[in-house]
Amino acid sequence: MRFGTSQNLYTECGEKIAFFLLCRIIPQLTPRPRMKIGIVCYPTFGGSGVVATELGKALAGVGHQVHFITYSQPTRLDFFSENIFYHEVHIPNYPLFQYAPYESALSSAMVNVVKTEKLDVLHVHYAIPHASTAYMAKQILKSQGIHIPVITTLHGTDITLVGKDRSYEPVITFSINQSDGITSVSEFLKQATYDYFPITKDIEVIPNFIDLDRFKKQKKDHFKLAICPNGEKLLVHTSNFRKVKRIEDIVLMFEKVRHEVPSKLLLVGDGPERAKIENMCRELDLMQCVRFLGNLDAIEEVLSVADLFVMPSETESFGLAALEAMACEVPLITSNAGGLPELNVQGVTGFMSNVGDVEDMAKNAVYILQDENLPRFKANALARAKEFELANILPQYEAYYEKVVAESLNALTEPLVASTDRPMREVLVGKH
Ligand code: GMT
Hints:
Structural class: alpha/beta
Strand content: 5-15%
Helix content: 40-55%
Number of domains: 2
Largest sheet: 7 strands, parallel
Strand order of the largest sheet: 3-2-1-4-5-6-7
Number of helices: 16
CATH architecture of the largest domain: 3-Layer(aba) Sandwich
Shape: globular
Bound molecules: ligand GMT
Distance between the termini: 63 Å
CATH class of the largest domain: Alpha Beta
CATH topology of the largest domain: Rossmann fold
């Protein structure tokens, strides 16, 4: 082993301090430029709207000005902030319309908000129809001398189910390629996008995130006692009850599990499959142990008393609902579809099975629910959730906004540099 002289020890120390200051302290002291950001999303229950709203709230929390442009108040937009603004899209009806032209109303709203609020960037969530409406808005603004960079975030079924349908494909391909920036919520979704569409641009993967101040295990013993009066284990599923969630697999799996482990099942959410699943439970004589709760705002309260979260989806680009469960110390039984392997660690935070393999899911669920196993899986679930903490992911979005805005402005100015002495932004975007 070599010992340094006191002089080169000092030098080494100095270098380390300088490196630490450069990497850790200075970036935190140097504030990021505050931006005016327009967010377009589906405001109802559903992963993309939740991510968009939570992102907007977090951006506002660190000083950016955030303008939501949606057809109704986003469900998770549940508090007042001086940095958050909500612009409702009005869709006037007319007897001639069989389908009200939502896209035209939305593009017009985007144009108006960008102009009046002098936005720096438009971030649209879920490609259909938001990427093409943003393109339309961008072109209208361009005709008025205003440049607005557009970022599209791909969430899942906008690519894997609806988007690749021939009825939408040309518009999706075109408008994704026209976006100034594209993000996807998992490596799986990025690859699926390249597989299904001729996309010529880079896609940045920024995973879903979780606010651990809100999603954490709370003491709700009275609630657990009300649902499981005899100390039964509690299985939970939350979703918007679409076919892709394969809720019938949860019921079939639960039917097997409850014979091995006394347990109850809570199904939270609502959607097209709910009536069918309720019928199924009635026919299987399960209504004594299965409860349907409908849509809930305070989902973290239910998750706080859960022992196992079940997500057997046909495809799932990330699985935000599963991450919310993990943050409340709930292990997972999921399928191995889509991006779920990027979240659920096999044998550590839970188990994954092939889509539809109800037998395997039941076997794994019984294993996790054993008293000697459950505490370990719960602790691992929380530890994994911490990797997706909001504080880790928010700077990725901020850095991406800065990069895309700078690149799109550079792309505008480059060809004209030689032909004018006036500042480029003024030439190209007028007074905006
Ligand atoms: O329901 C929605 O709002 C979107 C939905 C979808 O159909 O694409 O959810 C997706 O987005 C979430 C947030 O990014 C992801 O966590 C979900 O995994 C994803 N759902 C599917 O891929 C089925």
